[in-house]
Amino acid sequence: MTADDRTLVMYGDGARDAARRMMPKPPDACFAPVGAAALRAAVKDGLEQVVLVAGVAEQVAFLDDPGALESITLDMDGGAALAAEVAGAATPRDAYELWEAAGKLGPCGRELCRRTAGELERLAAEAAGSAVSPVAAQVVLVDAAGERMVGMFGRMAR
Q: For residues 54 and 149, is the Cβ–Cβ distance under 8 A?
């Protein structure tokens, strides 16, 4: 078994092809749509690395925190006015567009990826029944078309 076989590549809506281009070595069996169930099953099978390639909506769903995007905006020096706009955005994609228009997509996108990676590692630790995650998580934020990488964060190993 190779390291590529112990990698789970989860992809968001419309991002499968981008995930495949970014991760050409793992076999097709290592690719799965975004979901905590896929992560839990892979941890039980000896997963060492998880890579998530997804848009803002899928990442926010993992965070399970309605104020996450507003918090990220404030933490990345977006200011109170932008944070209020982001908090009032109808969808995560609308918040993404607000970040982009304000020139904050880079730092906010990376912070979203960092928080999502942390949550993936927390879920993996929970699935393993451990206080420490057995996997290293990498997260890539892609644009709405699922084609262009706009942010990333990750660890190569735990």
A: no
The DSSP output letter for 34 is: S
**Cα distances (angstroms) measured from residue 28 to each of 20, 40, 82, 152:** 9, 18, 41, 22
pLDDT in tens, 83-117: 999 999 999 999 999 999 999 999 999 999 999 99
Most distant pair of Cα atoms in the chain: their distance? 51
- 73 burial (CB, 10 Å; 0-12 / 13-18 / 19+) is buried
Give residue limits of the domains in the chain.
Answer: 3-64+105-154
Please give the C-alpha separations between residue 18 and each of 69, 77, 148, in angstroms, as whole numbers: 24, 30, 8
When pLDDT is cut at 50, 70 and 90, the band that residue 156 belongs to is: confident
Q: How far is CA 42 from the centre of its chain?
A: 17
Rounded-to-integer distance, Cα 31 and Cα 33, Å: 7
Q: Looking up tokens 């190779």, which residue turns up?
A: 2
Place of tokens 């892609």: 142
